[in-house]
Design goal:
By secondary structure, the protein is an alpha+beta fold. The protein has a domain at 7-94: Alpha-Beta Plaits, CATH 3.30.70. The protein has helices spanning 19-30, 58-68, 88-94, 101-112, 152-156, and strands spanning 7-11, 36-42, 50-55, 72-73, 76-77, 79-82. It has a 4-stranded antiparallel sheet with strand order 2-3-1-6, with helices on one face. It comes from Pyronema omphalodes (strain CBS 100304).
């Protein structure tokens, strides 16, 4: 058995249920034991009939595991253990969340690639020292706001109020 954890691993669930129904059922069932942060139900062939329930604290998870282990839900008895690792939701709340290796490697490789100018375009050499702001362009053209065209009839006319017969 894994060390006590805020996240419970639940197996032997009925795999005929739809994913939203299973998540809602597990949430309502386990929320009586404490604050449920997240319910992850998996429906792939490898992970059918399994779910993870993340609690706010370890004591709530322990209490729920002791009370609900072997509980018959939708015709099958649940098997409940502590999850091996911390839930992503809890890690994000703690500030210890790290991206999975494959996604982190992709993000890292995209940051390293230098900019390559298209052939035939003029490219300026990269700046090596502190950048000096370029001199402002000559202010030959200064924009002017257009004046508003107003009809004298509209500005001086009073608004007529319609009366309601109610």
């Amino acid at each position: 058995m894994a060390a006590p954890n805020q996240t419970l691993y639940i197996s032997n669930l009925n795999d005929k249920l739809r994913k939203p129904d299973l998540r809602l059922s597990l949430y309502t069932l386990f929320s009586t034991y404490g604050v449920v942060l997240d319910v992850v139900a998996l429906k792939t062939m490898k992970h059918r009939g399994q779910a993870f329930v993340a609690f706010k604290d370890v004591t709530s998870a322990t209490q729920a595991m002791r009370a609900m282990d072997g509980f018959n839900i939708f015709g099958k008895e649940m098997k409940i253990n502590y999850a091996r690792t911390k839930s992503n939701k809890i890690a994000k709340l703690d500030g210890t969340f790290k991206m999975p290796n494959s996604a982190a490697a992709v993000a890292e490789t995209t940051e390293i690639k230098p900019f390559v100018a298209l052939p035939g375009t003029a490219s300026s050499p990269p700046a090596t020292g502190p950048s000096i702001p370029a001199a402002p362009a000559a202010e030959a053209t200064v924009g002017q706001k257009r004046l508003r065209e107003e009809d004298e009839d509209e500005s001086e006319a009073e608004m007529e109020m319609e009366e309601d017969d109610d």
